[in-house]
Amino acid sequence: MNLVLIGYRGTGKTEVSTRLASALGFERVGMDETLVQRFGTSIPEFVKNYGWSAFRDAEAALASELGRRENLVVDCGGGVIVRDENITNLRSHGKVVWLTATVNTIVERIGNDNQRPSLTGTKSFTEEVEEVLKERLPLYQKACDIAICTDQRTIEDIVLEILTWWNKPAGQLTGE
Length: 176
Prior knowledge:
By secondary structure, this protein is of the alpha/beta class. It has eight helices and five strands. It has a five-stranded parallel β-sheet, with helices on both faces. Helix 3 packs across helix 4, helix 4 runs parallel beside helix 5 and helix 6 packs across helix 7.
């Protein structure tokens, strides 16, 4: 069984996934990191040269590959949920945790990160976050087994909440 983290950029997936993998003795796989390694270039550069569609195709192939493996903590890119097939593949051997945060928290955390390409290309960073979150909200909700807000919380607290949920009997692994 895999533990899959989804959520918008800047919600804490990388740090939380690192700590979870250590606590569970699982391998951590960062999807964006893996794609950068395979591409031999940054995501912004790849998207500039080949477009978002090619990036999403590569992401889907990786999701399919990871969905066939076991004992992973998977740190998904923020847009993995835009294709239903990705969630189907990742869920095939996994449970999905959605890390959430407010627009203000996200802007504070990643406002100066130039390794994250613009998703709209035309709006201010704050407007872009608001717009994309609004579009993706139903996709994140549909994809997850549990949602956890990361606003004003320590990584340790978030990890503990996920581990407590993860260690429940399989029939109780819901966010309700």
